[in-house]
Task: structure prediction
Amino acid sequence: MKTPFVVLFQERSGSTHLSSLLSSHPEVNCRAEDFSFDWYRPTVAAAGDGEGSGPPTSRRKLIGFRERVLDPTRAQIEGHLAEIFESGSGANGFKLKHPNQTARYPEVLQYLEALGDRLRVVHLDRENVIKRAVSKQVLVRMRQGREAAHLRNENLMRELEFQPIRIDVPEAVRYAGTVERLRTELAALVDRFPHVHRVEYDDLARRPHEVVPDLLGFLGVDPAVPLSTGVHKATPDALSDAVENFEELAVAVNDTGMAHHLGG
Result:
């Protein structure tokens, strides 16, 4: 029996790590964020030109051998979902980000709800919203300029090499507050499904030997298969080791109701 599943998550909650782990299981196929704002899907290229068949339109644009669907129809969306869930034996699924993709593609949620008892929902959460805010700024720095190359090359693979960064404290506090509100929204969304398994990112990182077998059992595949990942944590676990201006951050967070996240 094939088991359809979806990973519902917010950004900076470890979804890349989780999907990498799951995909290392021979009975699990966990796709990436297929339903992004610029939804990419395979297409057939016209012979010789490498640009696809037919001219670009307002609805889609052909890029190399892939098609960027700017405004997919319900039929396209449902066809793509059916393709994901029937792509292999065992458990087949994909990641769906809240609120970016859940709001952009309501047809996806409608399709998932119609699966009823067949569907398994993995609710990936990360309670520490301050760490998420810092992680977001680390990611932005890693993608920018010469400093990005240094961070990417020197810090990404090993926490011990990480050099603390100076963060934008007001932006971090604002982002953390937004994430907290969206966590509540996502929890309410998840409650709409009958079969849900919650995975806390920090538990997954610290106690994978306990978390992973339960998750695999939930997906209906062999829980004893050892999993691996090519994804490495970029930011030190202790915020004081990651943030150069940690004291400034602590003062700003102190009166927000999120101060308990500073030490955990």
